[in-house]
Amino acid sequence: MANVSATLVVIAKEPLPGRVKTRLCPPLEPEHAAALAEAALADTLDAVASTDAPRRALVLDGSPGPWLPAGFDVIAQRGDGLAGRLANATRDVGEALLIVGMDTPQVTGALLADALRTLAEPGVDAVLGPTSDGGYWTIGLCDPDPAVFDDVPMSTAGTGAAQRDRLEQLGLRTVELGVLRDVDTYEDAVAVAALAPWTRFAAALDRLGP
pLDDT, tens digit, for every residue of 69-121? Predict the structure, then answer.
């Protein structure tokens, strides 16, 4: 599998007030949470755009906005629940892929390039990047098999472990990537902004004040 050339996929919601980052409210107002979500999405898309991936795709719930750079295929999300939407995204892309969400604005092009290189190594079928809260920030598959997400509970402290178990159950040789902190709460937002002060996300949080 050393010749794997994977599509880089961002799965995201359109950053509209009341639809994104609702766990940041309070202390934030829905409009402020949406502004942070837009900044995080823009940071993530910029990181993807900076890589040499041969294809970039945004699997979107909603409509594209001015935050979308050129060079992305836009695919509408389909299905009920995150597991179903991930499965359908995998099916719709239809080739080796690395999926990243919009909750880790500190992700860089270098981190994504390393993940793609790891996925292309001989003997590797999948990669999984855990988050500090028990979830995961990225998953990569050499074979776009939607069954990878069957029976994996999403948005729980056990999601990452359940996903690893499912990959193992399918006999996929999986490499675990580095741990990132994702933004679910206001405390997460402050911590991630401090880790990545160069990001649009950090600038957006700074504009909101303490």
Answer: 999 999 999 999 999 999 999 999 999 999 999 999 999 999 999 999 999 99
Q: Which two tokens stand for residue 207?
A: 């504009």
| Contact status, residue 42 vs residue 36, Cβ threshold 8 Å | no
**What are the tokens at 29?**
């107002």
Residues in the chain, overall count: 210
Best CATH choice for the domain 7-205 from the list 3.90.550.10, 3.40.640.10, 2.20.28.160, 3.55.30.10: 3.90.550.10
How far is Cα 192 from Cα 81, in angstroms, rounded to an integer? 26
pTM: 0.96
| C-alpha 89 chain-centroid distance | 12
Strand partners, 8: 56, 98
- Determine the Cα–Cα distance for residues 172 and 120; give it in Å rounded to an integer: 14
Q: Are 155 and 173 in contact (CB under 8 A)?
A: no
- CB neighbourhood size of 2 (10 A): 9
In contact, 169 and 89? CB cutoff 8 Å: no
Classified as helix, coil or strand, 156 is coil
